[in-house]
Each structure stands twice: as structure tokens, then as C-alpha cells.
Amino acid sequence: MRLVVVSAGLSVPSSTRLLGDRLAAVAAPAATAPDPAPADVRVIELRDLAVEIAHTFTNGFPGRALADAFDAVAEADGLIVVTPVFSASYSGLFKSFFDALSVTDEEALAGKPVLIAATGGTARHSLVLDHALRPLFAHLKAVVVPTGVYAASEDWGAEGLDGRVTRAAGELAALMAGLSTARPLPKRDSFEEVTPFEERLAALRPTG
Description:
By secondary structure, this protein is α/β, with parallel strands linked by helices.
């Protein structure tokens, strides 16, 4: 089971990265329960990929590190995506990463469970989850968990944040576990295997 955290935080340390880590710490073990071994977690820091993201738009090809990040996202069983809020929306770096990903593989997020989260200086920007992030990932065909997590400066250390983290991470883990145990419907090799209706009807008629 693979869980990938995509963090668009710019500072070190970053509250955006901290929120992603807290969400992953709850989701990773929950996704594999009752197995005590948690899911494998990888964190992708977008600030380290900024130059390669920009070059992708000019030359059409991702660099080695960015291509590796794209592969990790595409192969993940679940994603946690976290962005700081800039101008009441996601950051340009965050959007550029997923734009470049969709250009490279437009189906990379199709059907993939995604937990959306954001950080900001004031609670007034909490609507970014539903007005910006949720539509973006719905457009990318991802399955967005019902609960998003927004953390304003005053939320750190408050009771409410832990509750939202637990609920959202649990929803993501449930989706990850459900998809990993799902089995595809059996496929028929050809239409000839289907018994025609006339033959089935004839078999029901009395003989003699």
C-alpha cells in the first residue's frame, strides 16, 4: 500500500508540510489495519521541483526528479495534497505541478483517492477547499474524500484540528483499503460465450 503526500510549502520548516505529515501519520496505519505495518509513505516537496516544473512547460518533457515524482503519484494507492493559500486559492507551484502531470498523463489521477488540505494565516480562507481544490481534483477525475482539512495559524494546538485530521485521514484510509481489496468483475473472452435467449427459452420448454 503506497501513500504519497504532495506538499507545496515553501518555507523550512513549513506548516504545509507539517499538516501533510499529521494526516499521513493517521492515514498510513489505518489504511492497512488490522495489519500492524503501515502503508509506505513518500513525501514530495514541490519547492525542490520548481525549476523542473517550469522547464516542463517550455520543452514538453519532465526532468528526472519530476518524472520520478509523477510516477510516484500515478502509482500511489492514495494521495494527500496540501497547499498554502495565496490570493484566496492554491499556490501557483501547486497548480503547475498538477497541470504538468495532466499534460504528461491525463489519466494519472483517474479514480485515485485524494485528501485535500490547505494552510493559511486566517480562517477566512477555509473555503479554498471547496471553491478551488475540490473542483480541481474533480476535473482530474480523482475521488476526493468528503472531509477536507484547512489549518489557519490559530488552529495549531486547538482541539478542532485533531478531530478534522482524524476524520479526513480515516476517510482516505477507507477508500484506499476498499480499492486495494476490490476484485474486477470476470471478463468474457468473446460474445459467443453468451447463451442466446432463444436457446435458454427452449431449454425451459417441456419435452416429450
